[in-house]
Amino acid sequence: MKFETPTRRALxxxxxxxxxxxxxxxxxxxxxxxxxxxxxDSGSFGIFVKGARxxxxxxxxxxxxxxxxxxxxxxxxxxxxxxxxxSDLEITAKGELLRYEWSxxxxxxxxxxxxxxxxxxxxxxxxAAKPAEQAxxxxxxxxxxxxxxxxxxxxxxxxxxQIAPCKDENGHRHCEPQDFGTxxxxxxxxxxxxxxxxxxxxxxxxxxxRELLRLNLRGEGLDWALWLDDQDKFKLxxxxxxxxxxxxxxx
Length: 251
Hints:
The protein has 251 residues and is mainly beta. Helix content is 11%, strand content 53%. A 14-stranded antiparallel sheet has the order 8-7-6-5-4-3-2-1-16-15-14-13-12-11, with helices on one face. Strands 9-10 form a two-stranded antiparallel ribbon.
């Protein structure tokens, strides 16, 4: 059983499958007015280690010409610009990679793009004359889960909720776990992960209790909890990484 129509439609909106009816509803009476690019989500995440804020990720997701554009910037809380990183991920409505680019202010960059049956990564080290290349035998639908960019986990959660077989039992929704092969460009390797819906949980966010949808994201050396707001476009609200005494909270 798939999600009910409003939920499936919301997820399709997020994944840029059918956003138009929502984004342009306010312009129905003025058909001559140019339509702006639909904004899917935007904001920032605070990254906290042992309760202290150590970094901020600012992100923006919108739809342009049928593709979803995910832009993100990671900055150290110390205010120094040397650790600033930027990422730019572009995928189709079906989740196929069009391009991925990453750079850091201290130098160095990389890009990932499809190349026939491969994903090809080009890495430019600081001061390097030409980029090095590495090919991965991975399909174009492989999710990007790069270091420091929690918005990539949000996009993966949306994909999981869109494709996972689900059923209702005694008023509770159960969805089968799904396995994904992912690519971590900064580490130059692929990694299998599993995502699973746990259900509704009460979570404290900045002193206020909220009921959110919990998903678990697991892999080798990876055990994260993700909480999404199913009343607000399934936005990622909080991430818990107990093994690293780390929490990520939407500002």
